[in-house]
Amino acid sequence: MPLQVSDYSWQQTESAVFLSVPLRGVSVRDADVFCAENYLKVNFAPFLFEVFLYAPIDDESSQAKIGNDTIVFTLRKKEAVMWEALSVSGVDKEMMQRIREKSILKAQERAKEAIEAKAATRREDQKYALNVMMKIEDEERKKIEQIKENERIKATRELEAWKKQQRKAEEQKRTQREDKLHQQEKQIEEGKKLKHKSFPRNSTTRNLATKGRNSENIFSEKLKEDSIPAPRSTGSIQVNFTPRVFPTALRESRVAEEEEWLHKQAEARRTMNTDIPELSDLKEEEKNPEWLKDKGNKLFATENYLAAINAYNLAIRLNNKIPLLYLNRAACHLKLKNLHKAIEDSSKALELLTPPVPDNANARMKAHVRRGTAFCQLELYVEDLKNG
Fold first, then answer.
1. Are 300 and 331 in contact (CB under 8 A)?
2. Residues 284 and 210 in one domain
3. Is 84 inside a domain boundary?
4. What broad class describes the main subcellular location of this protein (predicted)?
5. Could you list the residue range(s) of the whole structural domain that residue 318 is in?
């Protein structure tokens, strides 16, 4: 039965009420103060102070200071008038209960609005941050595209310059070949003139001249054929690559950690605590931690979280070395908003999930996620980062 506090003192002005409530040993951590428009309550075990105010106050601008075994309230009046008394008179128990319920309901609605406003602000902040990141990424993408375009233009110019140089070299080679052929034809013409001067113009001479012209034509065609290279023949080359397998280096091997994890798993399966008085009333399958774990999983799937926790509790009492029991119980505590217990079970599961190997990587990820979720819902972001 709480002790009702009645030896308080109060003073007032037209705009405020100053109330002093003596409570022996009161502290900020242990005192429960609730202030509404027409209702004020202080709960500090074993003391209880409760007053139904004479007129409405502005509870948002009102203040309370705790220290030296006293709570001092500064209550801001909504209307600048002098009160005849601190509390309203003639209030029966039924009316008191209605005032209490109305004040609590209003406080809950205000808290809900504050949470929704905070969530809306957080969403706006996230949206703004996302827009900023998208803008930065868009600028980076444009810079990269501009660099690519500049490199493409540069490569195109270099290719055009190389083609122009190749065309110029081909033109020079063709000119040199034509000059060489012209010089050879000129030498042939000079030889023909010398032959005409040396031999008479008879039939024999005509035959020789005809043969000479034929030989000249053959020689000229031969020169033309020699000056133009024949096209190269095409072919295909098949390349086969020998497959290479690179074994894991000894310094990067996880064999020792994996063997230690398998040894811990085998030892955990052998561990069984049978010194429990309640075991005599249980069925044979209910004494098996694995059966209890499966039972808890089925209860969790049907959203019967309390029953699932009971199943996991008994399984842990039978065998406290199985990390999945703590991990699943942490999930139940998250559903029931038992956030501190969820953090404890997740941390215990991480202690048992050592050393970290690929076989327990999935379970470790779940433990980190559930512990981080609990920290975030408690708004303990720094602790979450420290525990990583």
1. yes
2. no
3. yes
4. other
5. 273-387
In degrees and rounded to multiples of 5, residue 141 shows phi and psi of -65, -40
Same domain, 219 and 288: no
Specify the amino acid at residue 358.
Answer: P
67: confidence class by pLDDT, cuts 50, 70, 90: confident
Q: How far apart are CA 91 and CA 99, in angstroms?
A: 10
Contacts of 345 (CB under 8 A, 6+ apart): 326, 327, 329, 330, 333
> CATH number for the domain including 348?
1.25.40.10
Residues in CB range of 55: below 8 A, 6 or more apart: 77, 78, 79, 81, 83
At CA 339, angle to CA 337 and CA 343, rounded to 5? 145
Q: How far apart are CA 56 and CA 64, in angstroms?
A: 17
Instruction: Give the ranges where the chain is alpha helix by DSSP (H).
Output: 93-198, 203-227, 255-270, 289-301, 305-318, 323-335, 339-352, 361-377, 381-387
Q: What is the DSSP letter of 310?
A: H
The C-alpha atoms of residue 221 and residue 215 are separated, in whole angstroms, by 10
Strand partners, 77: 57
DSSP 27: -
**Domain membership flag for residue 149:** no
Phi, psi of 54 (to 5 degrees): -70, -35
Among 59, 91, 123, the domain-final residue is: 91
What's the total number of domains in the chain? 3
**This prediction's pTM:** 0.37
**Residue 286 is encoded by which pair of tokens?**
């209910």
The yes-or-no verdict on residue 12 having pLDDT over 90 is no
Q: Per-residue pLDDT averaged across 16-36, rounded?
A: 86
pLDDT score for 280: 59
Residue 221 and residue 166: Cα distance in Å, rounded? Answer: 28
- Give residue for tokens 């209307």: 79
Q: Which of 46, 68, 91 is the last residue of a domain?
A: 91
Distance, in Å, from the CA atom of 243 to the CA atom of 347, rounded to the nearest integer, reads 45
The answer to whether residue 253 sits within a structural domain is: no
User: Helix, strand, or coil here: 244?
Assistant: coil
- Please state, as a whole number, how many other Cβ atoms lie within 10 Å of the Cβ of residue 257: 15
My answer on whether 312 and 209 are in the same domain is no
**Cross-strand partners of 49:** 42
371 assigned to some structural domain:
yes
Cα 112 from Cα 117, distance rounded (Å)? 8
